[in-house]
Hints:
Elements: E1 16-23, E2 36-37, H1 46-62, E3 68-71, H2 79-85, E4 90-91, E5 97-98, E6 106-113, H3 132-136, E7 142-144, E8 147-148, H4 154-160, H5 167-173, E9 176-178, H6 182-185, H7 205-208, H8 220-226, H9 236-251, H10 257-263, H11 269-285
Parallel strand pairs: 2-9
Antiparallel strand pairs: 1-6, 3-6, 4-5, 7-8
Amino acid sequence: VDRRVDPAQVVDGAFSVVSLAMNYFPGQEEPAVDYRIARYAWNEDYHEIIEEKMKDLNTAMQELGGIQRFYTDTGPVLERDFATDAGLGWNGKSTVQIHRKLGTWFFLAELITTLELPPDLPFGDHCGKCVRCIEACPTDAITEPHRVDARRCISYLTIEYMGVIPVEFRKQIGDRIYGCDACLDVCPWNRFAQTSRETRFHARRSVFQNQLRDFLTLDDDGFRKLFAKSPIKRIKRNRFLRNVCIALGNVGKEDDLPALERVASDQDALISEHARWAVDEIKKRT
């Protein structure tokens, strides 16, 4: 039996799955910079923040006699399916979970327990005929409702993908240097979104005081310091500067060329290849 669908394979004697949502929306106003970072990565890594809160919940439930394990995007759990079954929300056509009051700006977490808890009922799909997320995707990664081709997804390409970004997707990436909120931004359910009370999700000033070309001066140590406790840290300097170079190739100006030409000779081939592409793109425009 697949551990992802059978909680008893994860916790012996499991009877219930508690599905939770945490609002991370940092507010409507975007920092005045020449690039975009997915909102969830504007500050600290959500894994650590949510784990703090899940530990407290776990302790409280142990006092009721339960044995638990909890996850947040870290274990063998079908998060969105459990959330749908628990009546927390529903999977939108972009495959992102949608909540009636939070829209799409939330993280999921699960607590698998041996306690027998009364179930909540799912309330169904409320997307109707809306296809805004499908139409908004810059790379047409949402190939049909509820199906995403990760190989085309900008979030995948700028975060998970470790190699050279295919030239065919570079223009569509635009000014995005980590992740993509295109399908989230247009969801009509986000009109109900409220700014998160958790300030560690709000924009980090030390990051957003930089313009694109400033990031090109980062060495490994500087990168780790700037993005300490940030989810961006996990892609390391080479992938991050790869993304920065692509964004500069798309929106950069002539005065960005010296910084790009300098990293075009970087020892890391992933950085230098994209820097040379960016230089060529800017020169075509100027």
